[in-house]
Amino acid sequence: xxxxxxxxxxxLDKVLESVRGYALSPEGRDAITPSMLTADRNxxxxxxxxxxxxxxxxxxxxxxxxxxxxxxxEYASHTHADLDGPDxxxxxxxxxxxxxxxxxxxxxxRMDEELMALSGEILSSLDPDGxxxxxxxxxxxxxxxxxxxxGERMRYSTAFMRGHRESMQQSEPxxxxxxVVIPMRSDQKVEGVYVSGASASxxxxxxxxxxLVALNNEVVIAEERIRAEKARIRHExxxxxxxxxxVMRTMxxxxxxxxxxxxxxxxxxxxxxxxxxxxxxxxxxEARHPLLGSKAVPITIELGSGIRAVVxxxxxxxxxxxxxxxxxxxxxxxQMSGYIPASRDSVMPIFTSFxxxxxxxxxxxxxxxxxxxxxxxxxAISRRADSGSLVILDELGSGTDPEEGSALSVAILRYLSRHxxxxxxxxxxxxxxxxxxxxxxxxxASMEFDERSGMPTYRVLEGIPGDxxxxxxxxxxNMPREIVDEASASLRGGDATSASIIKALLSKERTLDRKxxxxxxxxxxEDRRExxxxxxxxxxxxxxxxxxxxxxxxxxxxxxxxxxxxxxLVSDLKTGKLTKEKTKAxxxxxxxxxxxxxxxxxxxxxxxxxTSDETFVPGxxxxxxxxxxxxxxxxxxxxxxxVSLENGLRLTIRSSMARHRTRKKEEEKPSVSYGTSSKRxxxxxxxxxxxxxxxxxxIDDQIEAALLSGLSSFSIIHGYGDGILQRxxxxxxxxxxxxxxxxxxRPEDGGMGKTYVTLSL
Length: 761
What we know:
It is built from 20 helices and 23 strands. By secondary structure, the protein is α/β, with parallel strands linked by helices. The strands form six sheets. It has a six-stranded mixed β-sheet, with helices on both faces. A five-stranded antiparallel β-sheet has the order 18-17-16-15-19, with no helix packed on it. Strands 1-2-4-3 form a four-stranded antiparallel β-sheet. Strand 10 (about 355), helix 11 (about 370-385) and strand 11 (about 390-395) form a beta-alpha-beta unit. Residues about 360-370, about 605-610 and about 665-680 have low confidence and may be disordered.
């Protein structure tokens, strides 16, 4: 439930107007209204799921627009006459756009083939004005006959005028009332002609010889046949559209539903909106007012369990009203779409009604003062508010005697904290701030003010009431210094305890914030390092298992090949005479088996601990495993070596699996590399919604995984946005030596919202 004043005060009307700008159909635009608010959490999740899917589809072939067809239903319900040509054409365009919509959402199989054929026939038969195209197959024979008749008529007219040159007024025939006539001199008589008119001066007669009369009639008849055929084509298409109207009415409902979610998807991408968590307690993180654009300062406000009222205080022009509006507006948008411009870690509750009193509602016609207008609205809100209501009140109790206004504000706040679900108010009254301190169900919050610069920071401080900073604000607004100094002297002579307490609390809060932030950063770094170590250990274990499995297969293959070779040698030795060559072949065979045994032992490793004849120290250049992957020893721990490979990766191996490098072996190219990343390479990465830091971390993992898996190219979806993510990614790719090339995608594949990357393998 929401009234017009609340829609206006929270600026929901302005945001919805922005969303409507993304709609593709007039009917869809009309559906984006506050009436779509819902308190059904399942419906909110359904909408959020649809919007999320459409965001992921953006960049595909969405419909350009949907023409309005509501008037066709209205016209068809009142008359059985043929539909107008433009209406028929709009119906064809609608069916075509509906097919594009189904293709965009991956439901092409739902499109009725007969209706698709009808759409194609309409669009190939009629232009946007509803006129039948002249090249329509059914018109071509008729047009050909008409042109033949026109040609015969012109040939006759020209020949007649040449034969009666002395009687002609001009040298060329004329067109009059869609007929060809002969311009004759009025003082000449020619037999066998019909005079159909004369010029204004009477000197020229417009005549048709009897043969020309017949030829003119043939042309007129041919034109009439063409017009009749066009009328038949329009009639047939009109009848087909009429038959399809029941199905098209259902289609229109689907289009309106699609357009609602599609418009919010485009709006969400443009405003970097996310789907938050659902819960019972409000928690907004990095929330931004969508109308402020890049000027918006993200706010964070997290309410504890059981909080029913929040008192916002602080400097004038410090952001109290904007903060309160942001809370209300994002609550409304969440219950319309499931998406808000805030962190996805935010938590949003459900409200069944919304009430707001913001700004000056003074009415000259009603003879109501500012205070009276506010009281009238707040009285109505107090009567209607219930446990599911969100109430927003700005400058509660202002505009009257301070003592009475303060007392009234306290009473209203107490009442709403008992009856409403959640109440936000802004106030400068000390009694109201004190009440919020004494009640468990209430919370003080203030807008931070930088004492050194004399400027608000727009950051919300929870649990701390704010000083009004009236003198600093007055000075910032160019109030004469003499006035500000006198006011300051008056304050020093009075009770400044409240301001001192606030300053002390603010100082302690900032100190705690710095300590908490430092500890959080330290813990995050430690967690990341622990995760990386664990991932590397798992990757090494998996790689060892793969090598062992590969070694077993290689043994099987070698045994099979050896068995065949042995059988051949035995057969050779048994047949014929024992020669020196046969003896050498047998010796080579046994030596090859011994050599292979040593290679396999080095690659797979023995169950018991092997010792190596070679010793290693940090800095030694070595080859690792049977593949001879080059690297450098970083550290030695007993029989374990920590080796840094030339490709930048690092792993731990047994000393028996390494050997010192020689100049000759350094020239050999390894065929196997060891990886320590457990990440899997992706053919397409979607980085939309991430910060630049998160995106670059993902790309780093992707390049490492791609190199290990042999993936030479992949693509990155970064979207258009403000271009920050795209520029940062391109700068990063330019610096990576593994990146051979990168470029924007083809227009049909995402254009400047997507980048192709090619690696040097």
